[in-house]
Amino acid sequence: MTDSLSLAAEPAGEQDVLARSWERAWRALGLAQPGSDAFEALMRAYAEPQRHYHSQQHLREALALLETVLPTCRSPGEVELALWYHDAIYDPKAKDNEARSAAWAARVLREQGASDEVISRVEALILATEHRAQPSDPDARLLVDVDLGILAAAPHRFAQYEQQVRAEYAWVPSFVYDFKRREVLCSFLSRPGIYATDHFRALFETRARANLEQALR
Hints:
This protein is mostly helical. Helix content is 64%, strand content 0%. Keywords: Receptor.
């Protein structure tokens, strides 16, 4: 991983990232991998037509970034599975996407025999991606930083990201969207650090701030 995210890989490579990550997450949890229907249901969800940014592309990029820091996680299986499910439900008009995504993950984990403790931790990790505040849990901080990796993307990818987010809110009038989007971008810039971990702060902070300032201009 360099100082910015790259565009998605070729299709074969993309599938390798997905398959490798899915298998690794369940293995790290010490649980039997669910049937292919669980994986396919997620793929269908991430391919829904209302998604332009919160799509398979985002999932692949985030998983590839997480892969570079998995050895530093306290519970890598929980973090990786939480990343898989963090946008499993995505309705741009809803306010409970993360909660419903967490419930989906909990249901699948329960079916595979996960303990209540594991299920609770995965749910908490997913809810941390609401980005309402920087979490205190080390694994949650790492997960949130991975989810925000797009803010430090190379300029062409960041511009694409901005267009994708706008497409997801195509139903919002421009003057309303521009005001709300500016609020979101400014909220990140106003933080002492956009990234919660030392690793990603050193790697991404400068580029992310440059991207956000450019977007505001």
